[in-house]
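Fig. S4 source data, part A: sequence.
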Amino acid sequence: MNFLRAIAGLPRLLKRPQFLAQIIATDFIPWVLWEEPRNILRGYFAYARAFSEILSVPFLLKTLLSPWKGIAEKMPSIVRWDQFLQAFFVNLVTRMIGMVIRLLAIILSIALQILLFALFIVLFVGWFVFPLVAIGILAVVFIIV
């Protein structure tokens, strides 16, 4: 509803160019050049922090050789060599499974951070470039017409 009222008030605003220039200078330009880029940065850091907490690379590196989901058998005495070998290989397999899954999680975490940074760069640069492109397109349209 506010949008419709704003659109309805646009012709009156265009009839008063000094007021329009004042609004652009005091509200629009600071918003475009300072407030919204700061919000974009805050959003990026919030997402980066959330991704790093969900898939924590330092934690995954600390627990890289831990057994998967804590599945491990108690090691019997070496005198019972058959039970010892069975427990040894079960523990070895669960640690290898844990290592593979944690390595995949580390790769996923790094890939997500790189993708997030690339999207941030596109959005941040696009925020400043878009008005210039829009003005250029309008200038070309008005020159041709």
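Fig. S4 source data, part B ends here. Residues 57 and 73 are 27 Å apart (CA to CA).
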